[in-house]
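Glycosyl hydrolase 115 family protein
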Amino acid sequence: MGKTLINITVATGLIGLAVSTPVMAQDAVLFDGKSVAAVIHERDTTLGLAGDLLARDLKAVTGQAPNRSSDLKDCVRVCVVVARYDSPLVTTLARDAGLDPARLKGQWERYERVLVRSKTNPQTSYLLIAGSDTRGTVWGVIDLTREMGVSAWEWWADVTPRKVARLVVDGGNRTSETPSVQYRGIFLNDEDWGLQPWAAKTFEPEVKDIGPKTYARIFELMWRLKANTLWPAMHDSTKPFYQIKGNAEMARDYAIVMSTSHAEPMMRNNVREWDEKARGEFNFFTNREAMVKYWGERAEEVKAFENIWTIGLRGKHDSAMEGAKTPEQARDAMTEVFKIQRGLLAKAQNKPEDQVPQVLTLYKEVLDVYMTGLKVPEDVTLVWPEDNYGYINQLSTPEERKRKGGAGVYYHLSYWGRPHDYLWLATTHPALIREQMDRAYRMDARKIWIVNVGDIKPGEYLTQYFLDLAFDRKAFDQTPSEHLKVWTAQQFGADQASEIAAILTEYYDLAWARRPEFMGGGQTEPTRPNVISAYVRTGGDEAQARLDRYAELTRRAEAVGAALPADRRDAFFELVLYPVRASASLNERILKLDLAAVYAKAGRANVNALSDQAKAAHARIVADTAAYNGLGNGKWNGMMDMAPRRLPVFDAPIWPQWNLPSKAGCSVDASALTFTAGVPSVRYLSVYTGGQPGTWSLSGTSGLTSDAVSGDLNTANGFQQRVRLSYEGGETLAAGSVACGGKTIKVAARLLKGDAPAEVNRLITLPAVGFTHPLWQSSEPLEWEVVPGLGTQGAALRARLDLPSAREEPSARPITYSFATTAKADAVLRVIGLPVHPLTSANGLRLGVRIDGGPLQVLDFETFGRSEEWKQNVLSNSAVRTVTLSQLPAGQHRIEVYAMDPGFLLDRLEVRLDGAPDYYGASPAQ
């Protein structure tokens, strides 16, 4: 790093340490190849733990254990000083260097870092990390360890720090910003199939539960992710947090703010702590005195700790208030409960009730109660939930945004419940997280963000992404793919970062269409059996295209894994390969059995091979799960369960076999060989016989590379072979011909222009971002903004959040889509949005559509409650409205789309001409 002269002065409003004279910016050499910097920290439990973390990381990257002390006299050459701004350690250095640490006073979680030279000994220097408070100091340590190359997942995902011959960090003055969201944290939930059995049997058998040793590891991970708030594990399988000795004290030692979920008011885990035999029924209407005593006990017990108190009342465990017959009755009871609980808190804390941090999470029926007119005290933070599937129910109106307590968000990356769980693999699309949390931040929901991470693993990346957005809103300036590429580089190095990021993006894209857990087609609560997949309803092309994408994704992931150095293979398996291959295998098991059923009716000879392949796919899930639990000599034994809640989608099915008559002849299935000019992509063709052995050969291709040009069709491969065709983006393309069974079959391939929609299989797809032009000339911004990475087409459009809702006729200007048809035909326009909810309670969710200058048609996308429509929407990440186009004439056509409510998300438009296949999702040929 070059040396430059900088003059650090105190400007009006600048928070930080001031240097009275110009200083030379220079590197801080923490390891010169011979000796490592010492760690000097305050005599303080929390900062002692921070010093321990830093010392371990220094040893991990240098191979040498640093000296640790609380005395500056023990600094011989160079040391890292970890302290709060008002510590004697900082005071001493500030006096010698002319610094003003008091500038940090009163700031929330900020720090200053600067290299200070000793006046008495020029050979000694101090890399000072001075925090405005304890956690601000800790974030300074974490940023330093990140600069040293230590991943947040160095223990939790085995991203082992790599040793360096010399360790140099920037010694220039830096001041951190206040975190964008004040309280940022995680909720450990649905821990029954991973975190709890792993802790009880493997990591903390002496406690046989999630105890202080496990929580210490969790709290350190939270530090590395710059999270400060925890909702602890609370299922019936887990002993309540406050009933295990040492848990609360460990949170205090790590300066973690404890709170509890929407189901646990007043820090009480009702499902395990409320004893009906001793206390009576959990009913405020009939057993008020016992409940008040119960709350008061906990208020007194934990009053010495830093807490955010969930107030209000629900049922004993994540259910509606017991005894309330109507939302209005629940509202009136809730009003009384607020007064009682706040009085208990004020008494225990010996301070005014509005000075005790409190939240009300408006989850499920509590939101209904709130909407009846519930008056929530002004200082209480309103926490808006999403619908459990990634879409925030509503955010604050202009009036609600004025509340003193502000607002926050509770978000899910893992969920147990109807219409179907997704507890196994973390598949929420990063682009959706970014869009939903961006709207939350812009609508001033910035007080507290909590994310349900389930068992932590395998949701590592999504957890970090959510918390990165919470800590520093500048992360919103990156696209999801940019953030993912940076993250993968931090875990695996720059060489493979682009490819790994692309693999994970494809993994999230495939799950966007349908999560792996949803592929069985069943639902739960009540649990319903699996059904034949909608992916095969058009004959199998769509299912096969999905299988092809998963096969290609697995091939790429396995290739990267094989090329990685040994010290990254476990991490790659945990963070990438297991979720990718498990998703692919479950899709293969389900879809190949469904295809076998379809093909058996058509007399295809590959049906038994498909059944065998499905069985092998299930065996791979079993083997991969066992391998996961065996990593690190059993470090993660019990952490990964391939069938949480034992729902039908995870069951090993019957593996059918058919006895079909053999038929002569050879055929080629190449119905999906459509490419877009300039866009490299992979497609497949199938060569098959009716059950008789044969050979085949491919010739005459141009612009395509195939993984095989000839082969044998036999019993082993089900008399079928799939050929992978790679298009690199050239201007010409020909798929050639297949010679098979004594005949030559010409293979048709289509190269679409990238700048215009085209009809494929009687279907025209118009991506949301593919509007041709606005029908106005103005410098005013569009009523829409692009959301990168979201949806089925690579980007979605969002109606601007500051857009006023239209009353009748939209005041917003339209965007325009153009397409052409070659013949007169009946058609249907499908408008596909994302299943978002109205931005606030004062808004709707409407879109205006005008076709070829005709009348305006208003499409209302709002759903209510847990309707069947809402269920299907969240299972498919889509919301659809249709417009009939009777006898659409041939020629050019124009669709004008009007934004009528803020926050609407548009994915694509589809014009389905008469006879178009009824695909489950976006056309596989696009």
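thats it. Residues 1-25 have pLDDT under 50 and may be disordered. DSSP finds 19 helices and 40 strands in the chain. bye
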